[in-house]
Design brief:
Strand content: 5-15%
Shape: elongated
Number of strands: 5
Low-confidence stretches: 14-93, 125-135
Structural class: alpha/beta
Number of helices: 15
CATH architecture of the largest domain: 3-Layer(aba) Sandwich
Distance between the termini: 130 Å
Strand order of the largest sheet: 2-1-3-4-5
């Protein structure tokens, strides 16, 4: 009886009126009491007879009628017999118990019932823009230039007839420097290709060293063909040995800029002039129809190559070309400063030409 009375008291306290609940809040929640009441009812039915159950129900009813509970006035409660479905009393909004996680999840809408917001369609991908033509997309080292020229040659073309971007994947990865023999073989093959494809078009050949090697032929007039027969580091002695490379071509003009490496490597002024004389004589015999244009040796900013020595050699070259009926073009006044040295803006290292320097030389090339 004690446990039954205790459970009933707890149940009555949980369903008290809102006002009374606020004055005397129950110590145990309704959700915790109901299982206890059910367990107590089941134990009572199993342990006692029908008479005991009736006495117990009468006693509980009496207690309820007399209002022995000090929680305040409450509504009558009907206790269902054991084994019957018992509906929990209606609770006020202030006494609603917290929902279990399962109940909360069950109240969630199904995924198919949820409408996703409509996103605007993504714009179509932009096509990759072509990089602008610039010096960054051109070979900048000797190995890169060699590989570019070789790649073009393997397709039957000359390097100045194609864009460097066309073979960029090949020449940008190169690291090994070609030998002098490889450069000579490359120039011989390019000359053979030109002789085979020239036809009746006008051709100009450039013979020289590193200054001629880096001459930007793609910036020269495309109305005629250009064949570059220059190798870095060569002297006039080297050039004499390979003039026959382009013997099968039919050039309109042959431009020669050579001699600075001879002086740099210790050759005498007379040796330089003598070798240039042999070059002019050989080319006049090999290409009698071509006009030979010989340029003066350019000034430098190197102490071992003083301006007065270069000017002495240039005066002898001018006299030589006059005797050979060739054309002499004196570039020294346009390229030198007040001290006779190479103008700073026209060079990259005191010897080789900058883009401004090649622009100045290109003006002389197209006018002769």
């Amino acid at each position: 009886m004690d446990i039954w009375l205790w459970a009933t008291q707890l149940l009555l306290g949980a369903v008290a009126a809102p006002g009374a609940m606020r004055r005397h809040p129950p110590a145990v929640s309704t959700m915790a009491v109901m299982p206890i009441v059910a367990e107590a009812s089941l134990a009572e039915d199993q342990g006692a007879g029908d008479q005991g159950a009736e006495d117990q129900g009468a006693e509980d009813q009496g207690v309820l009628d007399q209002g022995v509970l000090d929680q305040g006035a409450v509504a009558p409660i009907t206790v269902a017999p054991a084994g019957s479905a018992m509906s929990p009393p209606a609770l006020s909004s202030a006494a609603q118990p917290p929902m279990s996680m399962t109940a909360v999840v069950n109240r969630w809408p199904r995924p198919e019932a949820v409408s996703s917001p409509v996103r605007p369609p993504l714009p179509p991908p932009r096509p990759p823009s072509m990089p602008p033509a610039s010096s960054e997309l051109k070979p900048v080292t000797g190995p890169q230039l060699y590989q570019f020229r070789l790649a073009a040659l393997q397709t039957g073309q000359l390097y100045n007839q194609v864009a460097p971007q066309q073979y960029r994947d090949q020449w940008q990865r190169v690291a090994d420097s070609p030998t002098h023999d490889q450069w000579q073989a490359l120039l011989a093959r390019e000359a053979e290709t030109m002789a085979r494809t020239q036809g009746g078009r006008s051709l100009t050949v450039v013979v020289g060293d590193s200054l001629g090697l880096w001459l930007p032929l793609d910036e020269l007039p495309p109305s005629q063909l250009w064949l570059n027969q220059s190798i870095s580091g060569e002297t006039t002695t080297h050039m004499l040995r390979r003039l026959h490379y382009f013997a099968a071509t039919q050039p309109r003009a042959i431009h020669i800029l050579a001699g600075i490496n001879d002086l740099k490597q210790g050759a005498t002024e007379a040796q330089v002039v003598d070798h240039l004389d042999q070059i002019i004589a050989r080319l006049q015999q090999q290409h009698p129809q071509a006009r030979l244009v010989v340029y003066s040796i350019l000034p430098t900013r190197l102490q071992e190559l003083p301006s007065d020595r270069i000017q002495r050699v240039n005066r002898q070259i001018a006299a030589l070309t006059a005797d050979r009926a060739a054309t002499f073009v004196d570039l020294h006044p346009a390229f030198s400063d007040d001290q006779g040295q190479l103008r700073p803006e026209l060079t990259t290292d005191g010897l080789h030409l900058s883009p401004q320097g090649y622009t100045l030389w290109r003006a002389a090339l197209v006018s002769h």
